[in-house]
Every structure is written in structure tokens, then in C-alpha cells.
Fold this sequence. Notes:
five-stranded mixed beta sheet; 2 domains; 8 strands
Amino acid sequence: xxxxxxxxxxxxxxxxxxxxxxxxxxxxxxxxxxxxxxxxxxxxxxxxxxxxxxxxxxxxxxxxxxxxxxxxxxxxxxxxxxxxxxxxxxxxxxxxxxxxxxxxxxxxxxxxxxxxxxxxxxxxxxxxxxxxxxxxxxxxxxxxxxxxxxxxxxxxxxxxxxxxxxxxxxxxxxxxxxxxxxxxxxxxxxxxxxxxxxxxxxxxxxxxxxxxxxxxx
Length: 217
């Protein structure tokens, strides 16, 4: 029986795997520029690596995240444009976080023309606690409104100015909740869309300096 995967195991294995993958030259990646294909390759390889050492429930599209038992989703993104998408559940995610933590691998891809291989140098491996996965500008703005003696009307006006996808009833409910429980500062940039567009430049810059945004490598 393999031991159950813990959060500490996941972080440690992520660091070790990133170091090993950075020195690996893969023929299957030669000439590949599609970020989705690269991310799929990396995610499958890392998941297989974990499955040889630990027991854990594999994520699925139905569950929505890669490690549902740990409440963690894995993201693989290019250093040149560090971003990805995730499923939209509610506008509340932009204020109070996605509802799960993120394990982010940021790679810089190069090709060896002579050997006809591709290499993924993992420039950053970052773990973002679920409490820090909200939108930076939205959370800092709302905190300023509350600290400046803002009321429910002020908060609703702010939400409307940010074009948050909410109706009047939801905006009222959110405003009451925000006034009673101001959100923690998030460190993602989240763009409104049918799927959230997550951008990671700020967490790359702040990793290791902010509580809840951990630099693994």
C-alpha cells in the first residue's frame, strides 16, 4: 500500500520534480509551441510521478481540480505570458478566492535544434493558499472602501464599477457580506469572462514575501 499524499508531500515532490524536469530534454516537445499541449504533457508526467509514490484521488473535469482531496489545482504556464483559465463558479470567487489553492509551475521552453529536443526550464514553482486566490485590485479596493467608512451602497457602486457579473440581489448580498467580513487581499489578476482568466505575474513577484504565497522553487 502506498502512503496517502499530503500537502507537504505535494510541495516537496513539486520542487524535486521541477528540478529534474528542468534538466530533461524531451523529443516529444521539440517544436511544440502550443501552451495547452505543453501543460498537458507536464501535468500528466507529474501526476504519473506522484502515482508511483503515493495514493491519492485523481482529479477530473467533473471535480474541477487536480487534487480534490487536498483542495489544490495545478497550473502550468509560460514565463513569457504567465496566465491560464479556470472554470467560473460565481462572482464571489473574485472577492473571496477560488475556493481552492493553486500549485503553479512557470516554465521557459527552449529547443535544441541539433538534438531535436525541447526543454522546460521551471523558472518558478509557487503555491498560493486558497485565501490568497482572489483578485488583487478587487480585494484591495473593497478593503479601502470598508476602511473609509463605506456602506452597502458604496460597496455595490464599487462592484458595478468593476463590472462584476452579478445581478442586483447578488450584489446586495455580497455587499452585506463584505461589510461584515472584508476579504483578505488576493494576489491573482482575474479577468471577467465565461471562464476566469487568471494572471500570475504578481504572485511570481510576491512569492516568498507574502503570507500565503509560497515560493517552492
